[in-house]
Design brief:
The structure is a single chain. The chain has about 475 residues and is α/β, with parallel strands linked by helices. Helices cover about 40% and strands about 25% of the residues. Helix 4 runs antiparallel to helix 17 and helix 12 crosses helix 17. It starts with a helix and ends in a 7-residue tail after the last helix.
Length: about 475
Amino acid sequence: MLVFQILIYLFIFVVSHARHVSKTSDICKTLLSEELVNEIASYENVKEEILKYVMKGEFKRKTYDELAKFVDKFGARPSGSEVLEDSIDYMIQLSQEEDITDITTEKVEVPHWVRGKEVATMLKPREKNIALLGLGRSATTPEEGITAEVVVVSSFEKLDAAKYEDIKGKIVLYDPIFTTYGETVVYRSQGATKAAEKGAVAALVRSIAPFSINSPHTGSQTYGENVTQIPTAAITLEDADLIRRLYDRGETIELNIKMFSTFDIGMSRNTIIDLKGIEKPEKLVIVSGHIDSWDVGQGAMDDGGGLFVSWAAPVILKRLNLRPRRTIRSIFWTAEELGLVGAYAYEKNHKDELSNINFIMESDEGTFAPLGLAVAGTQEAKCIIAEILKLFESINASTLVEEDSPGSDIAVIIKNGVPGASLHNANERYFWFHHTEGDTMNVEDPDELDLCTAFWTAVSYIIADISVDIPR
């Protein structure tokens, strides 16, 4: 079942990156009543109150400071690990210190993959250490490693066109040039399976990133059914390009790869914090981020920032005594990195309550300067959100991007017809640090985190408080 979930996750993530900026203002004029437009505009003062409190008042820098404490204390928080569970306990205690008591956790079975020693050495045409990171749940090599010749392909089509005997017993290196994450990530997620079908003994992928300082990027991959599970890893852009140049000159390239790991099933928890609505408490506006991370880096950007802006929303609203009509629910998803496991568990546990989700939001692609929201839903739903976003022109966060499946975890919920959105932010450098040792607090900016926190809190409050439900 877990493999199937991961395949669905990968499909969702790919299609979610087909996006375009909405230009539907004329349509919206016919769909929204003047009364609703005026009502949304009336939230200007409360929006300003929230922005002022976060950006200039008592909450200034608090998101950054609390994130830094969290990241410095726990570092990486891999699925199934004790440190992840300790970090969940910490977030519960932090919330209770803010006098938030409506907190529940739900147990989730999660994958627990532990990276061991990983070494790659080029033996021919010269000796060179090759930096690499095994991909999630990669198979291990024998103790002596795997020594084999390398075949370089730029696409699955090139691999398909190769003869079986030309691939059998060799290491396949995929070296597609990064275009978008959604387009390029398939070589990481499916590369081992497709190489194994051709008889390869291992698969490598040029890191799915536009930039590198000799930094490999890990990530999730899944083995298809009825194929040999071969070791698979990412190497740096620099080493992949070196190997490509040698290969194109007709050189024989030989590598020795040693990769070791363990895999079992552990237990974790989704964490749910509610700020109850005063009129329709059963109706939910969800803000969310995932609390787990990869085992490399510190998980500051992916997804510590998203976790903390979603933690901050109910905290700020409680401090300001702003209780919306509907309930604001903050969810800290567990085990996102190895296949949206927490999100699938939530969907299963709450399948009879999905109709009560008015809107669902997630931040999982950085918390840099907010630009707006990437929104999925009906045209009328998008028009309402677009009208709300007009209130944030003063901080340059009024853009609505249309997406069929925004976010990662929330895509699991949105596919049920629930309207939702992910944070659209100035994250041009996000994939420089994504899934690497570079994902540390140095990537975060206190002022940009304040902007994200203020924006996230104010938007969720307005959606939760307006008189109309977001239509489906």
